[in-house]
Amino acid sequence: MSTSGTTDSSQTPTQAVRSFTDLQVELLDFFDNRPGGGAVAAPQNLIVTHVTNEYLTNLDLSAPPAPRQLEQELLASCYGIIANENLKIPKNDGTYPIPRHLSTWQVARILLRLHHVVRIAPTGANTDREYDMLAMYIGHGPSRGIYTASEDDLRTTARLYNTQLTTADFKEVVAVLREDAPRVHLNSHRDLIAANNGIVNYGTEPLDITLGGKRFHFEPKKVHPFDPAIVFTVKSAIDYVENAPMVRIPHPDPADGDWEVGEWIHDLFYTEGDEEFNQRNAGLAALTWEVLGALVRPHVSWNKTAWFHSEQGNNGKGTLCSLGRNLLGSGAHTSIPIRDFGKEFALEPLIKSSAIIVDENPVGIFVEEAGNYKTVITNDTLQINRKHRVPIAFEFHGFMIQCVNDLPKFKDKSESLYRRQLILPFTKSFTGAEKRYIKDDFLKRREVLEHVLWYVINCAGAVSPGSYYELSEPPATQALLAEYKDTNDPVRAFWTEFRELFVWDLLPFFFLYDLYRVWFTRVSPSGRLVGRQQFITDLFGIVQNDPLWHCNDKAHTIRPGSKMAVSEPLIAEYELKDWYTPGYTGTDPNRLGIPLLKPNYRGLLRTVPLGTAAPAAPVSSDD
């Protein structure tokens, strides 16, 4: 039976450790009696590899020797065998040199054996091993329990065993590690959270699971020891404390009473006595708690990014970002503004981050390429180019918060972009009533952060407190997303404005584009007009979910028949002269809008023609 959060000892029997003297005797015996050449000196490579492997295998991993002691013992072991083998070499043939320091291969083997160096590959992706990320487990200190991909950390550890290691030598060490390190994957279990003091099972039931060949048992909402078999590269800087108490802190001005983090978040979206405002913001405080929880649960596939939006300052969104950063710790988050996702080396910080938190994005940005941005949100594999280093294939597991003062525009107008956006409006302003000590002091206090961590794991979740795996979408976020779609996409805005105004039941694409051009020039005279083919492509995608209009094939031609037999008033209103009634020179709008029709058109069809009763809703077989 495995213990909570530890390996099952029945599956990993302890190996007896030989004394150093006994090991030396066994090594001499091996080389003196090795098959096929006991009287002949063994090859030098065999001496180094066999002695090193036997020495490292013999170590008690629960209490390994200090680096200097290990270096001395391993060199002594090699010295003893080499001296013995030199006696077997004829006098005129020379002898093997005595090693004065550990070789690059030996240093690499030590790192593999004692420091759990691994190659981290993207989960479920068939990527080249060359693009794996080399990482080393940290067993002690503030970063205990996680793997580091820092070459500085790896080099510093390697030099513990050979202080004379040169830059070229270290490259050789890395080459050996890349060849011999086991290939592993990052933890992908959505319920395992790396807190500062251990692993927390977010689930509401006990979890029995095999990871890295070891069996683990995790109790719900409890903290368990770290283990090298469970691969994390980032953890929160805050300890998980069961039932961490709510903390009330007196304001500097006694007239303001006490401050409490939950009340503060509630007040960001609530104004006493303003029922309309409070109704409009209903659910936003609960969503904010969910977002904070998403920051510490990076292995849940949220498939969303949160935009904190406000057109005015002093609204609390920057202070909330500070709370999120404090909850994670300085080494666990990065800041990559939206427009930087297309830059060559901008994504390298993701390797050691579990969140992206950005306080400010420039106003009026246009994002030409959104591929990396969308890939990061959905935790898909992307290639990260690193300055002067080998690129790696990487899956970012984490959540992203972007603060925006206006809504960025994307060239990408697809639903796959829009469904990734969760836009939280911050409509209150605290100008003239700022309390900077909340950000500078209260939200940095250990006891506050411990309560926040406990709360988001046990209580956050608008529908299922302590057990949510999707972010809620209150009405305010839905309304702002709909507004954003129109803002980001003039074709969509055009269609939203006109879709219910047409009289015709068949709308030719050429007619719609002519109307769009005139409308767009009026509403956005300095804007960038899309071409006709792009307009048709964009519109075709927009109407796929439209209940009033449909188009199954944009290349299919349709006979107009009675579908365009009446006058279309929009022709006169927007002076679409190419669609005027031939030969008519008057100004009657009802007579202007009857063009000479072609035999066929490509375009949109009204689902239920005007004047026709809508079809009855299908009756369920259960009714």
Automatic annotation (TrEMBL):
The keyword Metal-binding does not apply. Residues 278-439 form the SF3 helicase domain. It comes from the Bacteria. The keyword ATP-binding applies. Keywords: ATP-binding, Nucleotide-binding. Pfam families: DUF5906. GO terms for molecular function: ATP binding. This is DNA primase/helicase. The lineage of its organism: Bacteria, Bacillati, Actinomycetota, Actinomycetes, Micrococcales.
